[in-house]
Amino acid sequence: MRTQPIIATGNSDDDSDGSVVVDVRPKTQKPPLYKVLLLNDDYTPMEFVVHILERFFGMTHAQSFEIMLTVHKKGVAVVGVFSHEIAETKVGQVMDFARRHQHPLQCTMEKE
Ligand code: TYC
Fold it and tell me: β-pairing, 34-39 with 76-82?
């Protein structure tokens, strides 16, 4: 990205010729994205994790089963990438649902 101002007219930016500095660069930044991570544990039933992935992340049964197995084998997996607000909501939904069913399942988020 250019760091110097863009000069609309003339060759200097000291305004001695009456020129006006006009910055045409868009100032908007892409919002940061957050990975939602699911962590393995020894107690949460596999079917419960599959259900969570279907219910809160819109995955098919086959996708859910695959991701659940990845977490089970590797310890952690990214289950989605979202804006900060959506990621927070998903983490809250998973943690609430797991707690209500008395499973120790952990779900966290981290900046991409
Ligand atoms: N390891 C768990 C079991 O053997 C299954 C499991 C998978 C738990 C994924 C958590 O995020 C998880 N019952």
Answer: antiparallel
